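FORM 7B: Structural annotation worksheet

SECTION A. Query
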Amino acid sequence: MKVSVKDLRKPSSIRIHGDEPWLEAIHTSFALEADDTCAPGVEDKPRRLKGEIHLHTDAAGCVRVTGHIDFEPLVPCSRCDLRIPLDASQDVDALFKPEPRDADDRREINLSADDLETRFIEGGKVDLEELVNDAVQTAIPFQTCQTEPGTDRCLFCKADLSAPRVFSTGGEGVDEVPDSPFAKLAELKKKK
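SECTION B. Predicted structure
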């Protein structure tokens, strides 16, 4: 969703209900409904992105975008690969500056560190879809796993997450985990 800066003569707010067409790309990036690939006990409830965004312009032509989004998609657990709900709710706070006047698509320009943290108004419009998508994507951690309260065990597959090894041949007091594909090679090396 792109909002024209010309239409922002006074502060305005946009409520996100979750069924807007511009959210489709974000929604298709994540599972929104529980099914047989979900962890046991995952509720089948609506998981649409919702929130409220506020836009304020200043005398310099910059647009400050603030607000909050609520979203709880289903993502694969890093340990057991079952889909689990993950809270990706985020506060949004971004500054959109006018494009530099000397910007020319044919010329190379040097960006400062501040420029890398700043978003620019492109074609006279503020791109809220990109801002919301970035907020959601950065809210998802690289490794997703939920533990049982007060333990280091996966809430769903019950594997001990504090163990230094991933693979084991089993045995007394050891979680039964499939052998490493390299375990057989290690045995052959020991026989030499």
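SECTION C. Observations
Residues 98 and 121 are 5 Å apart (CA to CA). The mean pLDDT is 79.

SECTION D. Sign-off
Analyst initials: ____
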